[in-house]
User: Which sequence fits this backbone?
């Protein structure tokens, strides 16, 4: 039964090939993509159940042995990440169908979207399941190569500009990753996680630190941790809404997952704790201050994304069972909520033609369902009590207080301040886009005088969207015309409901994350599953 | 472990030149730099595989570790694919704007424009009364 582990990687790849063959028929492509991703969701659920009841599921592909072959492992952490990510991927795919008519109409070849999207999904699964550094690298490269295509979809000037920055940064991180792998292989003669966890401890501490820092640099670039985060808010907002949503939900979390995995399994000593805590604090603060200064919904969300990566890093840095459990729960929460918010921003853009707060208003009256759907994940992100964001933050906060040293307590204080600032930033979006009455004069003047740089196609996201706004001039007219299609609305609502479900089922979920954290700290279940010869 | 000096010199030259090129503005130069650094890192894998000389084949006495070579091969394939995409991107950029420079961050651009136009942030509420500008710049 451990053969199941390979399915989340293989199925999307096969599906991608099939989609390329079926390039002529959009309908057939849709059926294949949905079928494949549904199968991945089902597989991930089974894997999570089995990992929870029977321990880590390991498979050495093609029987080459863990020392030289490729090993895939689904322990609780991997399986949980896989399940959440595949659910989100499926929801975003369904959303993209609804939007398809608008976004992928004339300029963009639809035939490219589905295969690339499936390859992205395969890369994410591979990164989550991989049990050796080199396969992790391959997983990263697969998902990055797919993301290069998706972020420049359609090849408009704004997307090429944003894509260039994204690609150059990613290339650099890939090269550093390769250097790290070569150095680790030279030092200990293996890249398998289980063997590394046994051998790295024998190294000279200075060499081990060098290797750890190399890997951390790579993963911090991918996860957009503060000193290395500048690329994210610059490149994400210009892509089509579903693409931004899935990137925001998954790609940075793959980086966070890699940090969690390597910090707990390979480098369990906490010598880098002060550094990680400082980076977590700075990521939270700098990210949220960026969000406060923005006036575009997508950019505000991109900055909150950076900021909330800090919470996950905080959990990893503290490194206790409670902290890791909180961090894992927080990752699951954040994937769902952040993706839902980006999809909602896409709906706002679809309806009004803009995501600029200066030109929005009165949406609570003109689109009440959208407003409620936005309000729930928005409050969830800010960590208002009944929601899952609050539960995750409480767990992290308690872990910080229990740790007790001044740096940990500072980090907890910072995390509370940041969640207040998140509330401020997100309340600004709510007030200006949904709550405040329509100010036609203001909207008119902003659009007409053109001093607002965001209205220029060169800087704003979709070129077609901003031209549409300029043509119609008054957004109020647009608002009446654009009814939201059910195909976009339902997947978004489903994600919002899923994010609420994280609160409702917080009890069982925290039991799983507690067990996952325990498993991470023990390390032996993982090592035994890989090296114990469970073929 | 023993390290082949020739390999190390080659790595230093490739990575050094590549890094210099990657600091350029033009995407095509960055890509050339990326390919050079990539090749340098591939040589690093050969260094990691131990002393040179023996073939990576089982059954002939002393063999060279074949695993790093397999990794380098994978890395070469990935580098090839990504470079091809990057070149297409550079070409597209040249088609659209006549150059393939990596542009400034949008935020930097925005702040510079605001500074030139002497504007305040858009979230700043303008006071109702006309306060005279300190530097006497026209409003």
Assistant:
């Amino acid at each position: 039964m451990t053969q199941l582990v390979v399915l989340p990687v293989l199925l999307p790849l096969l599906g991608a090939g099939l989609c390329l063959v079926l390039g002529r028929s959009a309908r057939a492509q849709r059926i294949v993509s949905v079928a494949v991703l549904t199968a991945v969701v089902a597989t991930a659920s089974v894997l999570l159940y089995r990992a929870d009841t029977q321990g880590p599921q390991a498979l050495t592909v093609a029987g080459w042995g863990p020392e030289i072959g490729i090993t895939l492992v689904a322990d609780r952490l991997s399986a949980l990440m896989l399940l959440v990510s595949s659910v989100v991927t499926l929801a975003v795919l369904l959303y993209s169908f609804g939007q398809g008519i608008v976004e992928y109409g004339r300029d963009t070849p639809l035939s490219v979207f589905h295969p690339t999207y499936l390859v992205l999904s395969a890369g994410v699964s591979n990164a989550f399941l991989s049990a050796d550094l080199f396969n992790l690298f391959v997983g990263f490269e697969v998902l990055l190569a797919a993301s290069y295509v998706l972020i420049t979809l359609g090849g408009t000037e704004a997307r090429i500009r944003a894509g260039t920055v994204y690609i150059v940064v990613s290339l650099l991180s890939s090269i550093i990753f390769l250097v790290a792998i070569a150095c680790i292989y030279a030092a200990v003669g293996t890249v398998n996680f289980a063997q590394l966890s046994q051998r790295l401890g024998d190294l000279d501490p200075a060499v081990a630190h060098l290797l750890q820092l190399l890997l951390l640099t790579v993963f911090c670039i991918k996860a957009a941790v503060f000193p290395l985060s500048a690329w994210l808010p610059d490149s994400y907002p210009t892509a089509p809404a579903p693409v931004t949503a899935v990137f925001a939900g998954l790609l940075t979390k793959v980086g966070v997952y890699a940090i969690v995995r390597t910090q707990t399994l390979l480098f369990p000593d906490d010598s880098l704790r002060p550094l990680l805590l400082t980076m977590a604090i700075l990521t939270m603060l700098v990210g949220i201050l960026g969000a406060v200064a923005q006036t575009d919904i997508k950019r505000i969300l991109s900055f909150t994304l950076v900021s909330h990566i800090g919470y996950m890093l905080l959990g990893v840095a503290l490194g206790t069972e409670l902290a890791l459990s909180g961090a894992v729960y927080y990752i699951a929460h954040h994937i769902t909520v952040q993706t839902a918010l980006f999809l909602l921003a896409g709906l706002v853009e679809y309806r009004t033609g803009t995501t600029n707060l200066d030109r929005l208003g009165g949406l609570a009256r003109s689109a009440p369902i959208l407003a409620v759907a936005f309000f729930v994940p928005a409050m969830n992100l800010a960590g208002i009590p009944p929601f899952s964001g609050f539960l995750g933050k409480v767990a992290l906060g308690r872990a910080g207080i229990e740790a007790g040293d001044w740096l940990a307590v500072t980090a907890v204080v910072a995390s509370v301040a940041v969640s207040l600032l998140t509330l401020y930033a997100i309340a600004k979006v709510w007030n200006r886009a949904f709550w405040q009455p329509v100010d036609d004069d203001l909207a008119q003047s902003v659009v007409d005088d053109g001093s607002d740089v965001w209205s220029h196609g060169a800087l704003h996201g979709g070129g077609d969207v901003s031209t549409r706004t300029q043509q119609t001039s008054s957004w109020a007219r647009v608002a009446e015309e654009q009814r939201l299609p059910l195909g976009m609305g339902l997947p978004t609502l489903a994600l919002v409901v899923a994010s609420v479900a994280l609160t409702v089922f917080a009890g069982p979920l925290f039991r799983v994350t507690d067990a996952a954290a325990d498993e991470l700290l023990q390390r032996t279940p993982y090592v035994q599953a890989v090296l114990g010869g469970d073929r | 472990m023993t390290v082949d000096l020739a390999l190390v010199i080659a790595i230093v030259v490739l990575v050094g030149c590549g890094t210099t090129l990657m600091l350029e503005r033009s995407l095509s130069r960055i890509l050339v730099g990326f390919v050079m650094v990539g090749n340098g890192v591939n040589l690093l894998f050969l260094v990691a595989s131990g002393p040179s000389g023996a073939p990576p084949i089982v059954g002939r006495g002393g063999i060279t570790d074949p695993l790093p070579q397999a990794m380098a091969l994978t890395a070469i394939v990935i580098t090839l694919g990504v470079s091809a995409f990057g070149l297409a991107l550079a070409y597209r950029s040249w088609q659209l704007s006549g150059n393939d420079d990596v542009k400034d961050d949008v935020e930097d651009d925005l702040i510079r424009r605001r500074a030139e136009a002497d504007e305040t942030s858009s979230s700043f509420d303008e006071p109702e009364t006309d306060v005279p500008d300190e530097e006497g710049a026209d409003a």
